[in-house]
Amino acid sequence: MAGMSERGFLVLEDGSVFPGRPFGAAAPAYGEVVFSTAMTGYQEMLTDPSYAGQILVLTYPLVGNYGINREDVESSRIQVRALVVREACPLPSHWASEMTLHEYLASQGVPGLEGVDTRALTRRLRSRGVMMGAIAIGESPEEALARLRSLPRYGTTDLVREVTTEEPYLWPEPPSPRFHVVVVDAGVKFNIMRLLRQRGCRVTVVPATTPGEDLLALGPDGLVLSPGPGDPALLDYLVRTVRPLVGRVPVLGICLGHQVIARAFGARTFKLKFGHRGANHPVKDLATGRVFITAQNHGYAVDPDGLRDGIQVSQVHLNDGTVEGLRHPELPLLTIQYHSEASPGPMDNVYIFDRFLEMVQAHKEAR
Amino acid sequence: MSIQFRRADRRHAAAIAQVGQEIIAELGAQAAALLQPMTAEAVARRLAGYRGRGAMFLARDGRRPVAFAALEPDANDPDTSVLGVWVLKGYRRRGIGRELALMALEFARRKGYRRLRGTIPEGNEAALSFFGELGSLAQVVGGGMQYELPL
User: Fold this and answer.
1) Which CATH code fits A8-156?
2) What class is the A160-366 domain?
3) Which residue of A has its CA nearest to B148?
4) How many CB pairs below 8 Å do chains A and B form together?
5) Which chain A residues have a beta carbon less than 8 Å from that of B144?
6) How many CB atoms lie within 10 A of CB A129?
7) CB A174, CB A197: distance < 8 Å
8) Known catalytic residue at A255
9) Helix locations, chain B, DSSP H
């Protein structure tokens, strides 16, 4: 890219160095280095708040070839700290494209690194686990590593407070809404609101720090606990908010929301070695035996051993057997670890929203 | 420019020493990371000392020697060899170093080595990128950097 430094590096905390060429903003960055195997959907991934605090590596070798458009954002800004790719396409081709990937990153001060051996990098992360990393531009790898070691680690920061909305807001209403759904924004993706609206819901989005009584005061027919970034073990305040609401209002927990609900039912969470990030993760529904292909983006999982008060594991990941969903036989409660809203990824699981709204309907009729 | 590449023997020791001396003059002895002294006699002794387990490769532009690579056995690990590549200033970024490195890699594989290792001089980002593009993994170790390439 014109005017850019000729060389940049990704330095991992274990000292390994991956050379590349800077694009986007010529700025240093640090964060937890994670990889996604999704082949498309880079714009959605860049703007997914669940990637806050992370340097995203895309394993697909050519990124940016359909450009950047106005519509495919999942939040109001780029959330990743930096993007690492094999090749960033400088000449996108798509009718809706308004700018290149380079221009998009540069416009928001986010650095990118291309020309990186992303296959070797991903193999490193798979074998050693995700780790902190720094993008070095205009400094040596040794200096970047020293800087990285003085910075806070990913799992020590409550990133939900960094990405949640500051004020409640109303998503554009559908004509004649059927239900009022309140979404607790721990790092929500716009497609959750889009899909709820398509299904006739008026949607109010509230900050993750909203007290439970304030949530009930909004008169919700249903409550959605959104996905979000970071370690769920840091979110005691959300666990305390949620637990008394379960049973009083139907609840859907997605990703981080699923983990928070699991914690509210006694489970602990643990960090996965290299997480699940991609668009083709197989999940088995234990009741039916059916396998769904899901979009995923999480670095922590629920340990089912501590679950109590009747909540049950409903779905598991076929690759590693981790918990992918919870249900309760008596309470209006549904959780999934994966992203039913996709974006990016297969839309096979949007039925979860229909199932949730059936629960909302039944609860409303029973009142 | 037509560059000729070949595996070096003791007849090429003077040419290799000449490239080495020019690089030491440009970068300084430490940054050049060349074993001293860089004389024809010393190079010839090194070549003889390899006893078939190491090799040097030379690139010439016409009669002028412009680059060389040295692949040497690691004294501490029989499965490992150490690779260094040196290219004169006016000849860099033309693929000469890569060609020499590929010749050395082929030799190392033929001899049954399982990996290559080497040191990247401090601040030499070009060397870091060069070895990265060959497929090696560089790592900050202590105050400096090393690379490793599985074969």
Assistant:
1) 3.50.30.20
2) alpha beta
3) A16
4) 46
5) 142
6) 14
7) yes
8) yes
9) 13-27, 29-32, 40-49, 96-110, 125-133
CA distance B54 to B50: 5
Q: How far apart (Å, rounded) are the C-alpha atoms in residues B76 and B78?
A: 7
Sole residue written with tokens 């979860």: A352
Three-state DSSP at B7 gives strand
Instruction: Closest CB to A15: pick one of B125, B128, B140.
Output: B140
C-alpha R_g of chain A:
20
* pLDDT at res. A29: 97
List of chain A residues whose C-beta atoms are within 8 Å of the C-beta of residue B118: none
Q: Can you give the pTM of this predicted structure?
A: 0.89
B33 close to B12: Cβ distance less than 8 angstroms: no
Distances (CA, A) of A174 to A94, A205, A209, A220, A363: 30, 15, 27, 16, 22
Q: Which residues pair with B116 in a beta bridge?
A: B81, B149
DSSP-H helix ranges across A6-86: 42-46
Q: Which chain A residue lies closest to B149 (C-alpha atoms)?
A: A120
Which of B137, B141, B148 should we substitute to test contact with A (largest number of A Cβ atoms within 10 Å)? B137
With a cut of 50, which residues of chain B have pLDDT below it? none
Contact B143 A142 (CB under 8 A): yes
CB A348 within 8 A of CB A294: yes
Give the list of residues 6+ apart from residue A202 with CB closer than 8 angstroms, or none: A170, A171, A173, A174, A177, A179, A180, A181
Nearest Cβ partner of A142 from B132, B137, B140?
A: B140
Give which of A183, A268, A191 is closest to A232, Cα–Cα.
Answer: A268
> Residue A344: is the preceding peptide bond cis (ω within 30°)?
yes
**Superfamily (CATH) of domain B3-150:** Gcn5-related N-acetyltransferase (GNAT) (3.40.630.30)
Which residue among B123, B133, B140 places its CB closest to the CB of A17? B140
Inter-chain CB proximity B128 and A19 less than 8 Å: yes
Tokens of A72: 């495919």
Residue of A117, A134, A90 whose CA lies nearest to A2:
A90
Distance (Å, rounded) from C-alpha A220 to C-alpha A274?
Answer: 37
CA atoms of A345 and A293, how far apart (whole Å):
9
Q: Can you tell me whether residue A273 is helix, strand or coil?
A: strand
Q: What is the pLDDT of residue A4?
A: 55
- For B140, which of A7, A124, A141 is closest by C-beta distance? A141
Q: What tokens were used for A89? A: 């396409």
Q: Which residues, in sequence order, are CB contacts of A25 under 8 Å at separation 6+?
A: A105, A106, A108, A109, A110, A111, A112
Q: Is A339 a catalytic residue?
A: yes
Q: What residue spans define the domains of chain A?
A: 8-156, 160-366
> What is the interface pTM, i.e. ipTM, of the complex?
0.75
pLDDT, tens only, A7-29: 899 999 999 999 999 999 999 99
- Closest chain B CA to residue A141: B140
Angle CA(A225)–CA(A169)–CA(A254) in degrees, nearest 5? 15
Q: What would you report as the CA-atom Rg of chain B, rounded to the nearest whole angstrom?
A: 14
For residues A203-227, average pLDDT = 98
